[in-house]
Structure formats: structure tokens, C-alpha cells
Amino acid sequence: MYIERSLQRIVVLDGYSEDGVVERLRQAAVAAVILASDWHHALTLAAEPGSVVLLGDLFFPVPEQCPAPVVHLTRQTDSEPLPAGVVDSIHCEVGVTELLRCLRYAHDRQQMLSALARAATDDPLTGCINRQMLQDRLKHSMQRALRANQPLAVMVLDLDNFSHVNDTLGHAAGDAIIRQVADRLRGVLRATDTVGRIGSDEFSVIVEEYLNAANLMHIVKKIVATLSEPFGVGSDSLLLGSSLGIATYPEAGQSVDSLLLHASVAVQQAKDQPGCSYHFYDERINRQANTQIEFEAQLREALHSNELELHYQPRVDLRSGKIVGVEGLIRWRHPVRGFLAPDEFIPLAEETGLIIPMGYWVIARACHDLRTLQRRGIALNVAVNMSFRQFLDSRLLPTVQRLIQKTGIDPRMLEFELTETAVMQHPEQVQQTMAGMTRQGLRFSLDDFGTGFSSFVHLHSLPINLLKLDRSFVRGIVDCPADRKLVAAMIEMGHSLGLEVVAEGVEARAQMECLRELGCDQIQGFFISPALPFVELCYFVDAYSMGREDALRPPEKKLVAQLAGCRSN
Ligand SMILES: [Mg+2]
Fold this sequence. Notes:
There is one protein chain. Helices cover 46% and strands 21% of the residues. The chain has 21 helices and 22 strands. Helix 8 links the parallel strand 11 (242-249) and strand 12 (277-280). It binds magnesium ion (MG).
């Protein structure tokens, strides 16, 4: 850090001229020594760079902040605390060398402090303010805009593929370009606008009082035009694309963070266009919000228009080889986009709260299908997946009770799959709901086991009947001894807690054999069958039980063909 060491002038404000202080300083001739008539005169003189003010006892208290360091020249011999606004104190009878050393020290210290202050607010490469300072300025600009009812815009801009410039031309070339960007921005902006460098090749501009959108557009176009010019790198010139995102206050955000974030979001949008381009945030939120609103409306509609389907994936007991249960998995037959898997619409359903009615639709559908199975004399557990949000809904228990009554199913055949996160997030509330449902005879399984953070206390205290090992552990079970050990340990732990263990995602016979050796109770996965529409499931179960002699084989080709012929939809 460079520190200005030259002490240029000493402003003396005291009644001590008779002590010869001024005389002695003048004789030393290291700096201009000027006598100030009063404090205001001293302040004016001290505004010159390289000044120090020497202040006598008569001028206390110091009335306002001085641009130069103030040293107290005192007659007191015992050290007192320094008055506010004074950096040092020295006795008036010391020798001139000592006095000068004291003044120089005060001066250098001040220089260092202001260099530090600059480092905290300025970007040393461009001289623009840094991110922190920009946020500070933005905060004040927002307050001003609000008070004066004036428009305010925040822009964020970055250079396209700038890291490539650094990588291929070196960092010195990169720095030269960054400096040119800063100069060009300052060149086209008004004195009242603020430019800050907020990242390696990222700048932000605050534009105040532009009166109307046309003026703002004019400024935007000037920035885009100046950045479209080639940059000089040594003797070469280089064309670089840049992207400018604009967020206006208060439409695009009410806080510093949200305005800057939304301007950055608009930058990403601008990046879709080549060259130097700009994008306003508002358009994007509108469009995105519209898409989301549309999709949400479609999902709402799907709930009432039979576009949702519950498919069932069978679960096989490894001892008897029988299908003992099925897991219901939701699908959306979208009129335009075709079959949608849960991960394409469940996040939206969670976000919009539609997961609650959708969850009830799933339970109702499962109860209905369970009744059909019972009427056909097929005894299968039917499991449905539950989101933890459903568990926070007080209507869950009465609704399930009503559905059981209405359909007349055996509640012991209905099973709810919960993920570890759901169970662990609100243990008490979940515990209460689960206890109430268990009293009804309903069963629970812990889904995706091993991927979350189950507490053994909860595993033990909750009424869970089954552990479903996540597919990620099953995948490597044949080839990876570590995976096998892990699965063995999980199976043993499940058994010691009195739980049955189901392995998910079983795709090959070798995996099944391995799981059987480890004592796993049930398996589920493509090796048995993918999830099937209910009608196909019924055929599958019949066909499977007829071929019991080799029940664990996947459905033969002949069988699949036969099933395909039986599809009703
Ligand atoms: Mg599941």
C-alpha cells in the first residue's frame, strides 16, 4: 500500500507563538508553517493535501471534523486522555525534531487510514466503487427515489466468456479490458449515475432520476453501443459480447438484494442473445409467472378430468416368491405433453399446495383399487407415497377414515410410505398422526431408507412396519463389497427393530440372489415388473401366480405379449 509521506504544511492554531513554536518550526523548514486566525480558517487551510493541524489549549472543544489530523500542543505535563477528534498530544516545550516526528507520524497515520478506507470501498483496478459500497449507495438511492417519487434502475452487466480471455490472453490483458469497460461506462453515464465493479467481469450501474422509460432506454442503448466497440489488447483489438440486465425499482424488487438478484437474473436472460444485448427483468417474471400459472391451472384441471393415473409396481416376498404388495405411483397423462413422470409435476404441486388434494386423490384411487382387488380375492398390500406436507394437514386422519368406511376395505392392507425427511422434520406432529392412523389398522413404511438422516430413537418409537432400502444401495450390491456390507448392516438393523426390509430398484437376478442371501424380505423393481396401470396389474398378478414354479423370473416375453394384448386403455 502506498503511503504519502510528504508533510506539506503545518497549520498552527494556538496562543503559543510567544513560546517560539512557530519560529522553531519555520527554522526547520521542512514544511510550510501557517498561522490560522480561527478554527474555520484552520479548516480551510487543512483541506490541502499533506496538512497537519497543531492545536493549542485555547481551542477546545474541536467544533467539527477536520480533513487533516489534529495534534494537541499542550502545557500539561501529565498525560490526559486525548480529546475527541485529536490524534496525538505533545508538550509545547519539546525539541523541534521530536515535534516534527510527532507531526509526521500523525500525518502518515492519517494517510494509511484513508488508504485502508479506500481499499474497503473502491476497486483498485478500475477505481470504481466495490460491491459493498455499491449496495450501500443503492440503499440510499432507493430511499431517495421513494421520497421523491422518482424512478430508479439497477443494471448488472457482465462480459460473455471473459474467463476465456483470461485463459488465452493472460490476466494482464483481462485487466486491461476490465479497465476499458469501466472507462467506457463512466464515459457514457451522467455524473449522477453510479458505476461499481461487483465481480471479476461484472459491473453494476445505478441510474437515478431518468424521468421516463424512454430516457432509461436511451442510457441502456448508449451502454450497449459503447461495449460493442472492439477492446484494445496490446496492438490487437478484440470484440467481446456482453449482457446487460436491468431491474427497476420498485417493480422488480423492494430490497437491495432482490433488485441486484433480479438484475442478475435478467443478465442470464440476455445471454440467450448473441453479441451485446440487454434484458429487462419484468418481462421475464411476467412470462415465467404466466407459464407457471398456466401449468398450475392445468394441474388443477387434471385432478378433475381423469388425467391422473395411479400405476402399481409389485413387491415380491423372497421366501414364498409371491407378490405380497404393490406401490402406487402417480402419472399424469397430459393432453399435450404426453405422459409425465412425478418429478415433472410434483415439485410444482408441492410449491402450490396442490400436493394436498393430489395426495387425497391418490389415497382415494388406491382405496378404490384395493376394493376391486379384495372383490377379486387378491390379497395385496397397497402402498401410497405421502408427502410430509400431507401429514401437517389436520384433515388427513378423518379423510382416510371416511374413505375406508366408504370403500369397505381392510385398513390393514393400506400402507403409507413416508420418507425419512418427512418423519424426522416434525417428529411430534407426525408421531401423533401416525398413532391415530395406526389405531385404524393402517401400516407405514419408511421410504428411500439410507438417504436421509434417520434417528434410531424415532425409528424405534414410530409405528413403522417396513424399511424400504433405497435403490442406490441395491445398484452396486453384486459388484461392490462395500455396498453389500452396507445393505447387510441395514437389513440386520431393520430386523433387530422388528421391521421387514424391502429392497427397491432390483433390476437383475444376481441382485435378487444376493439380497436373498443377506436375508432381505422383499424386493421391488424392474426385475419383477415396472409400474403397471391397474388393469394390467390384475392380469400380471394372475399370470404370475399361475407360473409359480419359477415365480421369481421376470415375466416371459410370451407373457408380456399377452399382457399387451389385454390392455384396456
Ligand atoms: Mg416410494
